Amino acid sequence: MEQTVEFAPATGVLSLIWLLVAIPLASAAVLLLLGRRADKWGHWLGVLSVAASFVLGLVFFANLAGLESGSRSAELSLWEFIAVGKLQVDFGLLFDPLSGVFVLLITGVGSLIHLYAVGYMEHDPGRRRFFGYFNLFVAAMLLLVLGNNYVMLYFGWEGVGLASYLLISFWYTRPSAATAGKKAFLMNRVGDAGLAIGIFIMFATLGTTDYGAVFNGLSGLSATTVLVLGLLLLIGACGKSGQFPLQAWLPDAMEGPTPVSALIHAATMVTAGVYLIARSNPVYTANETLQLVTVAVGAITLLMGCIIGAAKDDIKRVLAWSTVSQIGYMFLGVGLGGGAYALAIIHLLAHGFFKANMFLGAGSVMHGMHDQVDIRRFGALSKHMKITWLTFATGWLAIIGIPPLSGYFSKEPIIAAAFEREVAWEAWVFGLAALLGAGLTAFYMTRLFVLTFHGPARWTEDNQHPHESPLIMTIPLILLAIGSVAAGWLMSTSVADWLTPVFGAEQAEPHGVLSHTMITILSLVVTVIGAGLAWSLFRRGTALEPQPAGVVVTAARRNLYTDAFNEAVFERPGIYLTRALVFLDNKGVDGVVNGIAAAVGGGSGRLRRLQTGFVRSYALSMLTGAMLVVGAFIAIQLGWLV
Amino acid sequence: MTPDYYLVLATILFTIGATGVLIRRNAIVLFMCIELMLNAANLALVTFSRINGSLDGQIISFFVMVVAAAEVVIGLAIIMSIFRTRRSASVDDANLLKY
Amino acid sequence: MSDFPFLSILTLLPLVGAAVVAFIPRSKAELAKLVALVWSLVVLALSIFMWAAFAVDGDRFQFHESYPWIPAWGANFTFAADGIALVMLMLIAILFPVVILASWHDVDQSKRSAPAYFALLLTFEFTMIGVFAAADVFLFYVFFEVMLIPMYFIIGSFGSGQKQYAAVKFFLYSLVGGLFMLAAVIGLWVVGGRTFDFAELAQGAGSLDTNTARWLFLGFFVAFAIKAPFFPFHTWLPDSGGAAPAGAAALLVGVMDKVGTFGILRYCLSLFPEASRWFAPAALTLAVIGIIYAALLAVGQNDLKRLVSYTSIAHFGFIGIGIFAFTTQAGTGAVLYMVNHGLATGLLFIVVGMFVARRGSALVSDFGGAGKLVPVLAGVLFFAGLASLALPGTAPFVSEFLVLIGTFSTHKGFAVVATLGIILAAAYVLWMIQRTTQGTLNPALTEVPAMSKDITLREKVVVAPLIALLLVLGFYPKPVTDVINPAVQATLQDVGTTDPAPTAVADGKVGG
Amino acid sequence: MEQLELPSIDYAALLPMLILFGAACVGVILEIVVPRKVRNGIQLGLSLLAVVAALVAVVVERGTRTITIGGAVAVDGPTLFLQGSILVLGGVSLLLIGERTVEKGGAFVSQAAITVGSKKDMEQASGQPGSTEVYPLTTFALGGMLLFVAANDLLTMFVALEVFSLPLYLLCALARRRRLLSQEAALKYFLLGSYASAFFLFGVAFIYGFAGGIQLDKVHAAVANPTQSQVLLYAGFGLLAIGLLFKAALAPFHVWTPDVYQGAPTPVTAFMAACTKVAAFGALLRVLYVAFEGVRWDFQPVLGTIAVLTMFVGAVLAVTQTDLKRLLAYSSIANAGYLMVGVLALNDEGLSSTMFYLVAYGFSVLAAFAILSLVRDADGEATHLSRWAGIGRKSPLLAATFTFVLLAFAGIPLTSGFTSKFAVFGAAVEGGQTWLVIFGVITSMLLAFPYLRVVVLMWLSEPGESTPAVSIPGFLTSAVLGIGVLVTLGLGVAPSPLIDLTRQAADFVR
């Protein structure tokens, strides 16, 4: 771990990387500021700007690839952002292999989803506004991955949070959407606070927030400091990526339009936590405990996501919990460290394709089914929307890891890596968890797929007229389906190599508790069992109403009681605390002041009664005063006082 | 006989006067009590004049008498006018101004 | 450096304007408004010139002017501005025209005289500029007290709701603080060698008796803590902010309350360095309590203007910890926070005022789904909310970040608790937004004809400069931080503290 | 028989007093000889002329530092300054007393001897010209006050005390309206005043016994080297002080103040609040600084306690007052407390700041009472607070003026109230009496409330049916108002000239 991290300054074409952020940002500004004047063409500007960023991203990527592998990075300082005392933070960008792949993912998948949204949002009066927010999101997300220091990352981090909020509560007149947006922002802020404190620690201990300087200074920090720092970053990552214990907002975020769920809450933003940990890999590599915690978070979340996902009936919620679960895999990967960093990123990219694919597919289904989201009321849609069915099938097969689709190439290695933990019990626990997760994934995704597209139709022709979506929506679906099929195989080795400058060369494989072949076989077996079980159970459809169920299913339906926990431990006490404080402030703090005023007034009211109006009582008070004064003087003189 | 006794007497007279103001109601009596206090002071002055062996005290007491006379003029005038209106010389009746 | 007497002219200009406006008859209200606006713009122009003339790397105090006043007491009309005062003066100069324009129709419906209102606003500007430009403790005190009067009448005469109660409470609270400060000023004057000159007093600050200095510090601090306000001296602000006309409320929290934090920075820290260090833990505790406490209270408010007032108290907690953390970053952050908070909360109050003017009520429960009717206005409200919760990209982020990062390097615990405040900030802003502009449309709103009128051109002109400034300073705060930084460093030098070195570097494990 | 040595008399130094006493005597004669119709103008002119002449004499004598007529009168800096102040304030008060247009016939009853409520009384109430005895009475009182602040022995002081008190007792009884109240006020003032003088005199006797003389320098010498029992000194000093504290209205000897201020005709109240205060504190200053300076450590705590008590009584009781005149009375009590803080500084600064305070307060209080005299209804002045609701809407100028004066009382900067408070508090801190300043500050907070209540009532309340009309001020009242407000503002903004003057004047001769 004695390597020093250095970034080469941006030269040539690469010094224009700021355009990546600037173009969508400018487009967002135009869309939001021009107002209704841009209604007619606004969505096309939105699509174009992201597409332009994608093209630029490709150019930059090619340029980066053209650099020598030792200096394959481009750092660019735009201006001094904050320069106070020793704190020097530049508005700086960094284009390196890691941010490069993210740029391509964001702009690539982003372009497709933007295109899709043109069709999806066609009848929505707020389409221009939608594209404004969408572009804002892309700009913020690009800033997040392109920043060359943690403050820039934080900048983008909160920016995507804002965009996410705006888009979740896009249909703000629905109370549920408004609440979901708020919930997302708040839980994200919890994570953000952790990230912020992490940044404070960097400055307090190392005097810098630049990636390079922080990583190089890590060796000077105590283990505890590194642990605390890493944990704080992990909190941030959990918040953004919907990981345990900050996962509750992500399923609710499905209140937003489906393209939003696809882009933000599946493909890109929610993976920012993975990016953060991968970016901070020197921190995590430096501390064993930290890795263990990260792995644990990943394992817990991936199981939790699967279990809950298996019990949900809302197509988007199932996909959302699936996202939670899949990101759990990624956390598992980045937590494992070493070669698994690259595996996590590969899974992230693959997931970006197949999950976006499925979300858009879900959107297409909803589009055709009059915004119905309950999978119990679908069925037999394969006949009515062929393209959607086929593309969704690729996503389904990809996510459950059927070779040679992408999921197989990205997920299976992570399971294997989990079994390769050095400590045996860890290897067994996390390995088996990952394996179990694979089985469960196969189960619930198959359930979803079967209930939606196969079995008997559980909708009626009276109010539902399933039809295929227009071309502008299906073309992105097709392209994403191709990605879902091919991406894994394409990326499995190339991306790992490409990311070597960031994560370091892959170390010698320690021998795991099970052989690699064994794991491959096992994971395929559990997948097939899970999928087969689901197929046989749901092949003939399901009841339209929820059926009484056992403890596990009930718990899963209620999100394993995590929401209840949050409500009981945070929300209710918070509300009571707020009410109590309002009371305290009015009656207590202000009461003291008003009390003093009242006391003065009351005292005054009583004292003035002493002014009786009788001249003799006045004389008495004078005489008393006189006696006291003279008495005091004499007492002083006799030495009794003073 | 030491002059101190006169001082004691003066103090007693003064106290009688000061207390009298408190316990009597009639304005005239009240006023007379105040005169008593002034005269107690006169007695004390004369006594001190004797003790100190200077004439100043005696001279002062003449001045005091004059001043007291002037006070009577004013006082009686005021008391008179009130008496005319209220048909009462009780100071306790005059308590419209209070609190 | 310039010999032009910027500060005295800047101070007197609004007073003259106030006199002019006051003599315009009621029947010509529009003329009065126009004169007031133009006058405040002239002040703004002069301020811009002054900003340009300020030499960033020059002396700490510039534009020094001094005219004898009461020689027997050593009191002079001494004006001087350091970077901190300069940015505050600039903020004042910017906010006043905006507020005047925003308050254009505030008095039209009432029975009160419009020229009087605008004359009061200009008088208030006079006292505000004076208090920041003064470099003589006596002069400062005079402005400190006199500024109550115009604001008292603005709240009392032109406010709404419990305006009398609020006005009296405001006045008495401030006066109580002011009188504590008076005692301290007198004490300082006596022990400090019968001079009021800030520079001289600051020079002799080290020779004060420790106990005396602590008592004097307390006198000043209480006054400033009430003004700022810090917990537990805050209860006047929600009442005043709730009752004042929205524009005036923007000035109240945007500018006037800054006198408190400015006073602590300028007077408490520089004049009583030892006492400042001694009291710092207590002050930090109050500030942090204020952040959390006021934020929770803000969540629980049902009156928009009171809510914004509580958010302000929370923000002042941030400024407070920034001041008492005694690091360059925190100090600069605190001053920058003062500016940004003025812009952000000013904007928030003004926008809330636009809502209230339309609805005729400031109660949150009287709104609901208003975004459907007035989308642009709702957007502006949302933006103001974002600035208030210090989202990156808006100016307050930079200051909050600086405050927290600077505080963390000396007081970890305080910084961590304060950081939790940013979560609560999101809670109160979003909860407010949700209850007013989002959700199902409150049917009562459709019955109010004014609610269907989205932002007007005048209102656009009002909010545009503030939004622009918030964004520009959010991305490029350097011009302001560069002005503030030297003054903060000089202040910290007075206090006698230095920034801690990064611990890893200090341990010699990493080359700095 | 030894040769009687006649004391030398510096007539020039005594001239101001001589002028006033002379003018007063002339005034009494004029009362007899001048026909009723023109009497008012002539009397007013005469008394004003006397005041101006006396003032000129004071100014001419400004450099004099002497003790004359056998040690009875000291003409020194404080004397001249205070005499000047009394004359200026007295002159302004005379304008108020001379006002005859605001109310038909003026504020004074035409014949005080007429029984209240009788048929004749009804007749005279409806506009018979007011009595003109008030002018010689006022002039006598002014003369007495001049002598009071100059008195260098205790006898002179006693005589002067009576000379200015007796006319005041009478003046109090001369109100045209609400005569019962007026008479009651006079009675109370008279009885309590005489009671206090008796204490004063008894104290004089003791001091005489202690020091063997009554000249202040003799007392001072005896205090330094006592030959008699100290009990005499302390008992004497205590009793003596009571007489002075009574006039200065310090608690618990303030009890007369609210009743008398409320009952007396408003111009007389103004006169008392402004001039009596100057005279009383002038004498108090002289006694404490010249005669008893040697026992300062003993009396500072006692008088300090009295000062604190006074401030609290004044401030707390003012809070719930409902009558404006009474409110101002309590405010004047509290102000006496603040003045005492300055007195107890017992240094040059204390002396000069107290004198500054006296002048500043005098002008403000004159303006305040002048305004009170303008707000009237059919029954005369409407002094009940509730009647002032919303008056700012009806007569903004008057309300603004009154607000300004109230702000001055509250000690807001840019008014003389602030500079004077600052001066006395500063002196006290310098004199080591910080505790007094702290109490002073606390009571100032309390005291702000009643003032603010009035301001709220005037501006922020809606005018009701019962809000009285405001009379158009006559020329004289306008002059008083103008002078009062201008001086209040002037001393607030540029107090330097007066401060310098008080400093130059701050040296007692012994």
UniProtKB/TrEMBL annotation, chain A:
Residues 81-131 form the NADH-Ubiquinone oxidoreductase (complex I) chain 5 N-terminal domain. It is a multi-pass membrane protein. It is found in: Endomembrane system; Membrane. GO terms for biological process: ATP synthesis coupled electron transport; electron transport coupled proton transport. The keyword Transmembrane helix applies. Residues 148-435 form the NADH:quinone oxidoreductase/Mrp antiporter transmembrane domain. InterPro entries: NADHpl_OxRdtase_5_subgr, ND/Mrp_TM, NU5C-like, Proton_antipo_N. It holds the Pfam family Proton_antipo_N. The chain crosses the membrane at residues 12-34, 41-62, 98-118, 130-147, 193-214, 220-239, 260-278, 290-311, 318-338, 387-407, 427-450, 471-492, 512-538, 618-640. Keywords: Membrane, Transmembrane, Transmembrane helix. One of its GO terms (molecular function) is NADH dehydrogenase (ubiquinone) activity. One of its GO terms (cellular component) is endomembrane system. The keyword Phosphoprotein does not apply. NCBIfam families: NDH_I_L, PRK06590.1. This is NADH-quinone oxidoreductase subunit L.
TrEMBL record, chain B:
GO terms for molecular function: NADH dehydrogenase (quinone) (non-electrogenic) activity; quinone binding. Its EC number is 7.1.1.-. It is a multi-pass membrane protein. The keyword Transit peptide does not apply. Keywords: Cell membrane, Membrane, NAD, Oxidoreductase, Quinone, Translocase, Transmembrane, Transmembrane helix, Transport. It is found in: Cell membrane; Membrane. The chain crosses the membrane at residues 6-23, 28-48, 60-83. It is an enzyme of class 7 (translocase). The keyword RNA-binding does not apply. GO terms for cellular component: NADH dehydrogenase complex; plasma membrane. It catalyses: a quinone + NADH + 5 H(+)(in) = a quinol + NAD(+) + 4 H(+)(out). Belongs to the complex I subunit 4L family. NDH-1 shuttles electrons from NADH, via FMN and iron-sulfur (Fe-S) centers, to quinones in the respiratory chain. The immediate electron acceptor for the enzyme in this species is believed to be a menaquinone. Couples the redox reaction to proton translocation (for every two electrons transferred, four hydrogen ions are translocated across the cytoplasmic membrane), and thus conserves the redox energy in a proton gradient. This is NADH-quinone oxidoreductase subunit K. It comes from Actinoplanes aureus. The gene is nuoK.
UniProtKB/TrEMBL annotation, chain C:
Its EC number is 1.6.5.11. GO terms for molecular function: NADH dehydrogenase (ubiquinone) activity; NADH dehydrogenase activity; ubiquinone binding. GO terms for cellular component: endomembrane system; membrane. Keywords: Membrane, Oxidoreductase, Transmembrane, Transmembrane helix. InterPro entries: NADH_Q_OxRdtase_chainM/4 (IPR010227), NADH_UbQ_OxRdtase (IPR003918), ND/Mrp_TM (IPR001750). It is found in: Endomembrane system; Membrane. It is an enzyme of class 1 (oxidoreductase). The chain crosses the membrane at residues 6-24, 36-56, 76-102, 114-132, 138-158, 170-192, 212-231, 243-266, 278-300, 307-328, 334-357, 369-393, 413-433. Residues 134-421 form the NADH:quinone oxidoreductase/Mrp antiporter transmembrane domain. It is a multi-pass membrane protein. Belongs to the complex I subunit 4 family. PANTHER family: NADH-UBIQUINONE OXIDOREDUCTASE CHAIN 4 (PTHR43507:SF1). NCBIfam families: NDH_I_M (TIGR01972), PRK05846.1-4 (NF004500). This is NADH-quinone oxidoreductase subunit M. It comes from Actinoplanes aureus.
From TrEMBL, chain D:
One of its GO terms (cellular component) is plasma membrane. Pfam families: Proton_antipo_M (PF00361). GO terms for biological process: ATP synthesis coupled electron transport. It is found in: Cell membrane; Endomembrane system; Membrane. Residues 151-446 form the NADH:quinone oxidoreductase/Mrp antiporter transmembrane domain. One of its GO terms (molecular function) is NADH dehydrogenase (quinone) (non-electrogenic) activity. It catalyses: a quinone + NADH + 5 H(+)(in) = a quinol + NAD(+) + 4 H(+)(out). Its EC number is 7.1.1.-. Keywords: Cell membrane, Membrane, NAD, Oxidoreductase, Quinone, Translocase, Transmembrane, Transmembrane helix, Transport. The chain crosses the membrane at residues 12-34, 41-60, 157-175, 187-211, 231-256, 268-289, 301-320, 327-346, 358-375, 396-415, 435-460, 472-494. InterPro entries: NADH-Q_OxRdtase_suN/2, ND/Mrp_TM. It is a multi-pass membrane protein. Belongs to the complex I subunit 2 family. NDH-1 is composed of 14 different subunits. Subunits NuoA, H, J, K, L, M, N constitute the membrane sector of the complex. NDH-1 shuttles electrons from NADH, via FMN and iron-sulfur (Fe-S) centers, to quinones in the respiratory chain. The immediate electron acceptor for the enzyme in this species is believed to be a menaquinone. Couples the redox reaction to proton translocation (for every two electrons transferred, four hydrogen ions are translocated across the cytoplasmic membrane), and thus conserves the redox energy in a proton gradient. This is NADH-quinone oxidoreductase subunit N. The lineage of its organism: Bacteria, Bacillati, Actinomycetota, Actinomycetes, Micromonosporales. The gene is nuoN.
